[in-house]
Amino acid sequence: SHSYVGPDYSVQKNTGKISLEQIDTLSVKSFPLCMRQLHKALRDNHHLRHGGRMQYGLFLKGIGLTLEQALEFWKKEFIRGKVDADKFDKGYAYSIRHSYGKEGKRTDYTPYSCMKIIMSNPPSQGDYHGCPFRHSDPELLKQKLQSYKIAPSGITQILELVKGMHYQLACQKYFELTHDVDDIGFSLNHPNQYFTESQRLLSGGRELKKEISNSGNSQQKSNSQESMNLNSAPTSSNTTADAELEGLEAYFTED
Predict the structure, then answer these.
(1) Which of 37, 126, 235, 253 would you label with 208, given CA atoms 20 to 30 Å apart?
(2) Cα–Cα distance between 11 and 13 in angstroms, integer?
(3) Tens digit of pLDDT for each residue in 114-136?
(4) To 5 degrees, how large is the angle CA 21–CA 27–CA 32?
(5) 6-27 pLDDT per residue, tens
């Protein structure tokens, strides 16, 4: 019941249409909180540990970054920190090419779904990956939302959903508050879906109605039930994807 069956976002029609100069702006306007958090940490620290590089790197791939853009993006940021160009080329570039299916088994790795982010590889000290609604301390989450100018009433709503373990619904509420809509009209289950829907809305490609359709209601109920039961399942049931990712993780072990 926890397997993700939606689009895998491995192939995007907009590949190469996003410039590296746009990413800072996009991270504020159209990234879900988990990816916005990773982007800010990368800009602040000029480094992400392997869990963060995997989660964020595959997301960026999914929104349209080419392999060449990804290599440039990560290299520019890492050499601003403690990693010189030679070390990056020898240690990190291979793992990026690997995630694009250009090394090793040539597996074209897909961006993580919400369920995978919530259910597997929880962050530890010094990590910035994971789901902020699931893995952040509520007080720290509250402070983060305040810094992003979320209204107090909205923060209260989000924290109530988090308290009830409705993590994806909390993310949907975050979408509604940051896009100034009453109801997003779809069931949110993938960070790349969040980005796509945000861009579509901001470009005037879809209208969000205040009234929820019957199908929308049933989706939300289903999503709510799914979120309620997240803690009851110890691991993601998407075992095939997990097995594939083991190969990729081997190349991301260097912090």
Answers:
(1) 37
(2) 7
(3) 999 999 999 999 999 999 999 99
(4) 155
(5) 777 766 666 778 999 999 999 9
Please report, to the nearest 10 degrees, the dihedral formed by the alpha carbons of residues 38, 41, 45, 51 taken in order.
-30
Mean pLDDT, rounded, for 193-205: 92
Average of per-residue pLDDT values in the chain: 84
Q: How many residues does the chain have?
A: 255
Which of 211, 171, 210 has its CA nearest to residue 193? Answer: 171
Pick from 58-62, 66-70, 144-148, 202-206: least confident: 202-206
**DSSP secondary structure letters along 72-133:** HHHHHHHTTTT--HHHIIIIIHHHHHHHTTSSTT-----PPPHHHHHHSS---TT---S-HH
Does the pTM of the predicted model rise above 0.85?
Answer: no
